[in-house]
């Protein structure tokens, strides 16, 4: 297994896929998917969601993995490589900053949220989380400088993993945390199944409302959920592709990542929504679901404290593995572009993230920050990535990378990538602005 970068490379296919799953499985999977599944047709919603997931996973993830491996560097170098094809490498370098800043921007917000999760975990361990003061908890953590200690702890842990482990650290951490995430959520889902009246939750989730398939909004939300839950940002997955050996079958790895990401989303739905219905509580999305609704449920369950701890541990795992990818995307580009040591690049990224983050912990600042990043910057970065790879560099060249270690791709792949996937990224960007986020 050849190392293709100064930071090393993934040592195994399993390690690479788990790292990608770790990046993809995040707060959107846990917060939004269960609610959207029930809200937009239950079992019927799964049809467009799975279709879009396969499409985006096969040609979207594959493209980002392939350009990273082809260019042998992360975001800035990858865009420069693409645009050098038409002798516009400087333009490509400048454009690459947009998705890179998207990764940094969302990392800043993610670190704040994971800080909330760690604090909730601590409150679960001490028993305070189940004492009925959930509204007080949410007010405290979303207040001005409301969670500085836990926020700092998240960034320090992430930085230490990246500084001293490089790609081996990313691989080892994901090999531990992601299987534990699945195991913990499976335990929660099994426990929830035995709650009285949990069957109402399963009916909410999976009873097909076929009429919803006739509503354009169902398809829009399924498309957005599939796209963003796979971490297709024009940046993060490129850097993981950089560390991928030439012996890896990229399309196959992309589909495996997509499959396990979907399983994670379904596990989150199985663990959360039936529990919500068992206690006759509205399945609200967002922070209210995680920090008020679910603690209320745990407080009423036998061994509720134990299950609260398991829940917040598993959510913390999902968050940290996603944050590793965001920090890595930024750090690798700065490390390579400005000839910095790895520790210096990670430290710089961490300091910037913390310095900005502590000033936007309050909800009136945090909400607008995340809206700007997730509605405008990240989706536009994804458009730039798709367009740069399939149109500027061209399918003919990226196909050479995609076909390494596998049989030749069928003609469908290029047609789907250029004439369906790339236009859809533009549509997603536009619809996100219209809907205020999808």
Describe this entry's structure for a reader.
It is built from 16 helices and no strands. The protein is mainly alpha-helical.
User: What would you call the shape?
Assistant: globular
Most strands sheet: none
Give me the Rg, rounded: 21 Å
What is the tally of helical segments? 16
Distance between the termini: 39 Å
Q: State mean pLDDT (0 to 100 scale).
A: 91
- Unreliable segments (pLDDT under 50, ≥5 consecutive)? none
Helicity level: over 70%
**Strand segment tally:** 0
Portion of residues in beta strands equals under 5%
Protein structure class: mainly alpha
The multimeric state of the shown protein is single chain
Note the topology.
Blueprint: H1 13-24, H2 27-39, H3 43-71, H4 75-84, H5 89-126, H6 134-141, H7 148-193, H8 199-206, H9 216-229, H10 236-242, H11 250-278, H12 287-300, H13 304-337, H14 342-357, H15 363-402, H16 411-435
Helix pairs in contact: 1-7, 1-11, 1-13, 2-9, 2-11, 3-4, 3-9, 3-10, 3-11, 3-15, 3-16, 4-5, 4-15, 5-7, 5-13, 5-14, 5-15, 6-12, 7-11, 7-13, 7-14, 8-11, 10-13, 12-13, 13-14, 15-16
Top keywords for this entry?
16 helices; globular; 438 residues; mainly alpha
Short description:
This protein is mainly α.
